[in-house]
């Protein structure tokens, strides 16, 4: 099998088979990641560049480490310390990186559709590491990988995503991906933080956290994304925490063996109590490890497309 596109722009565009293929490849990568010798030759001779216009710890570092573990040449560009600050356009910056022999550009940008725009203008593969409020496909893939690792499959599971759904590219990608793999996804959040079109995506939406949590197999908390908010339209942190914060008492509504997840970074005491972050059911640390495995898989699959196409 080969991924149809040269790029990974969103889970909206992927088939269920492609998602499963990526998750299965990540399983192999996880064995390498947790072994004593992590160095593999899978990306020898390949060049990977991260181009970030927004802050990141997990996504950027896990791509960088994934590249290094698989023997690629890798480099990072921060928009704030590059020629972007001198007025260079997004396409010109991407073309400049492309012309240096780069095989994969991983981009995070505040504008929805930025990765799609550069993908049309360059030869390198483009991976979307988060575009505005649109998608964060690699986060959703690692979330799904983590759930499948624990539960065997997503089919028939009830997944409750709680909080600022409107601004969340993580929620959007997870909704596309998880529904394709057969999960029942429901969301809960303040009315002003639920996108009006949400039910068209095949999910149930609730205005109380309690309704969404009942019998959930997986509970995912989200931080309130202040960086994307227009002033005055949304609840205060205190209201958000009071009505949609997840603590041990509220989580009793979910199944006893429910998995607790969060894409990070977590605001302890706001969307999750500190006790929940550190509880036995919390997979937040495992999500981080799995993020490296999933990104290793993606880099491998996207850079081998040419050779597989030629063989076929
Ligand atoms: N989950 C996530 O995207 O984290 P970072 O912003 O640290 O990359």
TrEMBL record:
L-aspartate binds at residues 86, 169, 223. Keywords: Pyrimidine biosynthesis, Transferase. The keyword Lyase does not apply. GO terms for biological process: 'de novo' pyrimidine nucleobase biosynthetic process; 'de novo' UMP biosynthetic process; amino acid metabolic process. Residues 155-302 form the Aspartate/ornithine carbamoyltransferase Asp/Orn-binding domain. Pfam families: OTCace, OTCace_N. This is Aspartate carbamoyltransferase. It comes from Acetivibrio clariflavus (strain DSM 19732 / NBRC 101661 / EBR45) (Clostridium clariflavum). The gene is pyrB.
């Amino acid at each position: 099998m080969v991924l149809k596109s040269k790029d990974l722009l969103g889970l909206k565009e992927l088939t269920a088979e492609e998602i499963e293929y990526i998750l299965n490849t990540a399983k192999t990568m996880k064995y390498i990641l947790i072994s004593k010798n992590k160095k593999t030759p899978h990306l020898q001779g390949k060049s990977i560049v991260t181009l970030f216009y927004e802050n990141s710890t997990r996504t950027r570092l896990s791509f960088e480490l994934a590249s290094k573990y698989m023997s690629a040449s890798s480099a990072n560009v921060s928009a704030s310390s590059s020629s972007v600050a001198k007025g260079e356009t997004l396409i010109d910056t991407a073309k400049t990186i492309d012309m240096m022999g780069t095989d994969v550009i991983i981009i995070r940008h505040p504008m929805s559709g930025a990765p799609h725009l550069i993908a049309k203008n360059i030869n390198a593969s483009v991976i979307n590491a988060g575009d505005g409020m649109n998608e964060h496909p690699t986060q959703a893939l690692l979330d799904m990988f983590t759930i499948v690792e624990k539960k065997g499959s997503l089919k028939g599971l009830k997944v409750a995503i709680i909080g600022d759904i409107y601004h969340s590219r993580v929620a959007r990608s997870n909704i596309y991906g998880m529904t394709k793999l057969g999960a029942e996804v429901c969301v809960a959040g303040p009315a002003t933080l639920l996108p009006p079109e949400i039910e068209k995506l095949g999910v149930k939406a609730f205005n109380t956290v309690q309704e969404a949590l009942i019998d959930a197999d997986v509970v995912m908390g989200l931080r309130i994304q202040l960086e994307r908010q227009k002033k005055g339209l949304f609840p205060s942190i205190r209201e958000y925490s009071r009505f949609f914060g997840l603590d041990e008492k509220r989580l009793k509504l979910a199944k006893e063996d429910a998995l607790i997840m969060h894409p990070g970074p977590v605001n302890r005491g706001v969307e999750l109590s500190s006790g929940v972050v550190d509880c036995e059911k919390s997979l937040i640390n495992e999500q981080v490890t799995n993020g490296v495995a999933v990104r290793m898989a993606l880099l491998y699959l996207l850079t081998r497309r040419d050779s597989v196409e030629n063989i076929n």
